[in-house]
Amino acid sequence: MDSQTTETARKQHHKSANREFPSLTKLHAIETLLFCIVPKESRRSGDEQISQWSHGCRVRIRPSASAQRRRRKMGLGATPMTAFLILVCSSAVFRGEGGGLKLNYYSKSCPRAEEIVKREVVKLYNEHGNTAVSWVRNLFHDCMVESCDASLLLETTDAVISEQSADRSFGMRNFKYVATIKEALEKECPATVSCADIIALSAREGVVMLGGPFIPMRTGRRDSRESHADVIDKDIPNHNDSISLVLSRFRSVGIDAERTVALLGAHSVGRVHCVNLVGRLYPTVDPTIDPEYAKYLLGRCPSPNPDPEAVLYSRNDRETPMIIDNMYYKNLLHHKGLLKVDQQLVSYPSTAQFVKLMAADNSYFYDQFSKALLLLSENTPLTGNKGEVRKDCRYVNAG
């Protein structure tokens, strides 16, 4: 895909930035209830009621009366999407996920915060297109490890061992540009916007720059005062792990099989270093790889012992390499999964069905990807008086 086509696709998706989610269902009319952390009050506007509770901020979708009648005539039960979202709402209260977060958290303390993050992400994308991929990966690596608390951004000091030095962080880059975003925010509102929220908001805007859906994200996270480098191997699955173990790791943060398959769709963008590929190529080629695709990979990675510092890599998706879309799943069905964890999705019973569904329907993929990324972005955040708001994302505040 040429750059003009890529840009056109990105702009088309960017138009959806003011919508919350892509259509959750084409069959059912819906009404929405938002539960937010503010004093109790409610208001009605047409058929929509927004109730504000003190328990946590979640979205609950209910079919309208007419939609329920249509489902009864068709012999169907409760809307699956409704059941899932109600479950998310319930589990959020008991697990404490997302507690203290809300939409537009900085509306009074730093009204232009989200606008500034978006401006800087767009500017960096135009200068260094791969930064958009980095923002998405940052969210995954930060939020999968204990908490969405920007511990990932801490650099090594006498008192801290950086998570960036772990094997699981191999290939991550562009951390220096987080400082660019932070500097712009500090200039506008000193010591106000957390680095953890920068990770979340930059990931949201990064997805849009990569042609994906706009995902509303609550803010109000605070920053950790410590690194979690000692538990990275436990929390972040390896690309060579069994799919059952990968599913277990995601399940531990409230993400089920369907949404795990959707999250792995982020592998539709970016690239993978040969260090992480040679295990499938040498001494013999993994038989699950398409023969022609194997020839391409061997050409990209001609040695079983690649230099980690060399520019030796393969694109995750050769068709639409800088667009988050369902081409990833189409490739899997043709045995062109780049990593072992990718290709396993097709052969594992509890994930294969979702690969097929997402390969056939890009909108369905976007729906599930949006929900999965939102869940991940709210994994046990530090809020209220916990943690701090770092002045420099690389270091804990002095004193």
TrEMBL record:
It comes from the Eukaryota. CDD domains: secretory_peroxidase. One of its GO terms (cellular component) is extracellular region. It catalyses: 2 a phenolic donor + H2O2 = 2 a phenolic radical donor + 2 H2O. It is an enzyme of class 1 (oxidoreductase). GO terms for molecular function: heme binding; lactoperoxidase activity; metal ion binding. Belongs to the peroxidase family. Classical plant (class III) peroxidase subfamily. Ca(2+) 2 binds at residues 317, 320, 325. Substrate binds at residue 237. GO terms for biological process: hydrogen peroxide catabolic process; response to oxidative stress; rhythmic process. The chain crosses the membrane at residues 74-94. It is found in: Secreted. The active site is at 141 (proton acceptor). The keyword Oxidoreductase applies. Disulfide bonds join 110-189, 143-148, 195-393, 274-301. Removal of H(2)O(2), oxidation of toxic reductants, biosynthesis and degradation of lignin, suberization, auxin catabolism, response to environmental stresses such as wounding, pathogen attack and oxidative stress. These functions might be dependent on each isozyme/isoform in each plant tissue. Heme b binds at residue 267. This is Peroxidase. Its cofactor is heme b; Ca(2+). Residues 1-20 are annotated as: Disordered.
